[in-house]
């Protein structure tokens, strides 16, 4: 963590970065599916990213509630 970055700013950054990662993985899954390629591992990774995103969003909600 950047010493100048507050906890709230860090959590907000994690949420933004997570949104991007989820979006990129969804795009990859769609591309693999359209090309008729195996998607099981890509879908499993997407599920992991989505769960992490839910955790980031819950952390953000808790951090904002403290304010």
Describe the structure.
By secondary structure, the chain is an all-alpha fold. The chain has one domain (7-66). The chain has two helices and no strands. It starts with 6 loop residues before the first helix and ends with a helix.
Which helices and strands occur, and which strands form pairs?
Layout: H1 7-34, H2 40-66
Keywords: Coiled coil
Coiled coil: 39-66
- Gap between N and C termini, in Å? 20 Å
Helix content: over 70%
The geometry reads as: elongated
Average residue pLDDT: 94
In DSSP terms (H or I, runs of 4 or more residues), the helix count works out at 2
Question: Structural class of the helix and strand makeup?
Answer: mainly alpha
**Proportion of β residues?**
under 5%
Q: What is the β-strand count?
A: 0
Main sheet: strands, sense, barrel: none
Number of domains: 1
Helices and strands, in order, run as: HH
pLDDT < 50 runs, ≥5 residues = none
Computed over alpha carbons, the radius of gyration is 15 Å
Keywords: Coiled coil
Coiled coil: 39-66
What key attributes describe this structure?
single chain; 67 residues; mainly alpha; 2 helices; 82% helix; 0% strand; elongated
Outline of the structure:
This protein is an all-alpha fold.
């Amino acid at each position: 963590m950047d010493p100048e970055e507050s906890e709230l700013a860090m959590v907000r950054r994690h949420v933004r970065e997570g949104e991007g990662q989820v979006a990129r993985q969804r795009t990859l899954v769609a591309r693999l599916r359209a090309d008729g390629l195996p998607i099981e591992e890509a879908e499993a990774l997407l599920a992991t990213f989505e769960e992490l995103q839910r955790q980031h969003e819950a952390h953000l909600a808790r951090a904002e509630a403290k304010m």
